[in-house]
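Q: Sequence in, structure out?
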Amino acid sequence: MKRSRLWALALVGLGLLVSALFLTRFIDESRESGQWVPSGHVPLWAIPVAVLCQVVAHALRTKNSQRLLRVVRPTTWRILFSGLSVGYLFNAILPFRLGELVRAHLIGTRMRISRAVVLFTILFERAVDGLLLGLCALGVVVATWTRAPEAAALMLRLALGVGAVSLTAALLIWLLYTQNRRMLRALGGLTALLNDRLKDRIRFVLWSLIYGTHVIFRSARLGRFVLTSMTMWALYLASAAALVWGYLPDRDPVGTLGTAIGAYLSVGVPSGPGFVGTFHYYYSELARGLLGITGVPVGLSLVTWAVLIGPFALVGLYFLVERQRERAATATPRLERLKNKLHRDADISREFSHFLDEYFSGQALSHVLSTGELRGDFRMVRTFKGGSNASTLLVWAGQALSVRKVTLPQHAEKLKVQHDWLLSRKDVPHLPRILRELRTDDSYAFDLEYREQYIPFFQFIHSEEVERSKQVLDQVLDFVGTHIYAKGERRDEPALLERYLREKVEDKVRDAAALSPRLAELLTHDTLSINGQRYENVFPALARLRANPRALAELASVRDTPIHGDLTVDNLIVRREDADFLVLDPNNENAISDPVVDLGKLCQSLHSGYEFLCQLERARSEDAVVEYEEATSSRYAELYTHLQRRFETTLPPEVRRAVLFHEAVHYCRMLTYRARINPDSLVAFFATAVRLFNAFNAQYTPEALGSGPDAPTSSTSLQRTA
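A: Exactly. Output:
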C-alpha cells in the first residue's frame, strides 16, 4: 500500500474517532437537556428512498464532472465517482470542505492532468450549486416571511452566506477567464520571490488554470451542465423532503421544501469533525419555524445528517481502502506533452519560462500569444529568445510544427522587413524558409520552416570537438561573403559616422540612463573602475575618438552592401550530423551597412561573451565602481583566437581595428532593451561597452601603431586600461 494511502487512512481514522466522540457527547447532552423528541421519528421506508435519491443525484454530479473534464482528457466515470466519494468522506471529517482539495488531487493524479484545473471545475460546480440553492432559499424566504419570520430571517442569512461564497468563486473564475492584468502582475510579483524552478512551476500552474477555463468554457456543453445541475438538485431536495414528509406527513409543501433546503444550507456551514452539533443548531431552528412544531427535532436532525453524510462517506471509504491495480503509465511523446499543457505526464514548466516571465509582468505581446492559444488558433510548444519587440516560438498549427515570429502591430514594420529580406533570398542556402505571413488586428507574424535536427551553435560549441566549431565558423563567414555581401567600392561617409555615433551611442546611452538611476549615476564620472581596472567613461572615450583624425577616417570609410546585421552565436543553429548550419534573424536596420558590422556581432559573442552576459542576474555599481562576474568559456576563447587569425589573412589593419568599435556600438544599441529585460544587470552591459571603446582607442596609441601596420590589433584584451 502506498505511503500516501496510509496517511489518508490514518487521517480518516483520527477524524472518525473525533467525530464519534463529539456525536456521543451531543446525544448525551441532548438527552440530559430534554431536547430529544421521542414521539417524533422518521419511518424506515423514507430512509432508502432518501438514500436512493442521493445516489442518483451523486451519479448526475459525476456525469457533470465528466462533462467538464473530458474536454481536457478522456476519463472514466469510475475515476470521477471514486474521487467524488473520497472527497465527501474527507468533507465529513475536515473543516471548511477541505475534502474538495482531496478530490482534486485524486482525480488530477489518476487522470494525469492539472490538479488546479480539476479544482477549478469543482469551484465552478460549487458556484452553480450555491446559486441554485440560494435562489430556492430566497423563494422560500419570500413565501414564509409573514408566518415564520425568525426561521425566514435565519434562512436568508444562510442563503446570503452561500450566495456570497458562490459569487466570490464566480468572480475568481471571471478574473482568470478575462486574464485580469492587475491580478496577474500581483501574482507575478509574489512568485518572483521564489527560486527559478519553483517560480516557473507555480506560474505554469496559474497559466494552466487560465488556459483550462478557456478550454472548458469553449468546449464543454455548459447548457447541459446547468440542466443536469437543476435535475440533480431536485433529487437532493427530494431526498431531504422525503425524510421531512415521513417525519411530519401532514405539513404544507412550502414548509417541507424549506426544511429540505435548510438541510443543505446547514450542512454547508463550515465546521470541524463531528459537526452534527452545528448542523443540528441551524437545521432544528429552521425546521421548527417552517414546520410549525414545538420542541427540538433531534431525531430528524440525526437521521437527515446521517443520510446526507453517511452512505456516500462509506462509499468513499471503500474506494480509499480498495486495492487498485497500478497500470504502467504509457510513455507520452515529448511533442504531445508540450501541445497538451493541461496534461501532467511530465514537468514542462521550464520550456515556457521566458513566456511566463513576460506574461506575468503584463507585457502586451505575451497576452496576444496567450489569447491566440486560448482561442485555439495555435498551440505553443516552446518559446525561444525573442528580439526587443518580437517573440519567437515553436507552434503547432495546421497539423504541423513551425517557428513563428510575432510582434505587435506598432512594431510590425521591422518584422515585415525581416520577412521580406528572407523571402527575397528564398533560394539562398543556409537561411530559414518562409512558410506563411499572418496579420491580424492585434499582431503581425510569419512562420518559418522548423528544422528539428538543428541545435543552437552555443550548445554545439560546448558539446562537440572545437575543430568542428571552427569549421562551422569558417563556413558561416564564407557563406555571408559569397551569398549575402555584394561587391562594392569603399567611400568616405564622415557625416554618416557622426550620425551613427550620436544616434546609436550617445542617444542610446542617455535613453537607458533615463530608465536606470544606477546608469545615470555612472555617467556623472569621467573614469570608471570596472572589475578593478580603471577606464575612461563612455563620453570621454568618445571625445578621445573624435579627436583622433586617423580613427575617424578609418571608421568613415565604409563599403555599402547588404549584410546580415545580427551575426551572433545566438543566431546560428547547427546540425550535429554534418555540421550544416542556418543563419537566423537578419536585421536590415543598420545605419552603416558594412560587413564589419557582422564581424563586430561575431566578436560580441566570442570576444566579450554576450551569451554569458545575458545569463548574468545582477551587477553591482556604487559611485564610479562597477563589479560583475565575468563568465565565459575556453571554447569561446579558442574560437576567438581562430577568428583573429582569419582576420589577419583576410582583412586590412584598418578594418580589423574597426571591429572593436562596432562591437562596442552593439552594446550601446541594446542598452534600452536590456534596461527593460533586467535592470539589475544593465550596468554590466554598459561597462562592457566602455571597456571596448577604451580598447578601440588603445589601438591608436604610438606604441600600438608602432608594432607594425599588420599587427592583429583587434585582439586587444578587455582588461587593458585606456
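Residues 708-717 have pLDDT under 50 and may be disordered.
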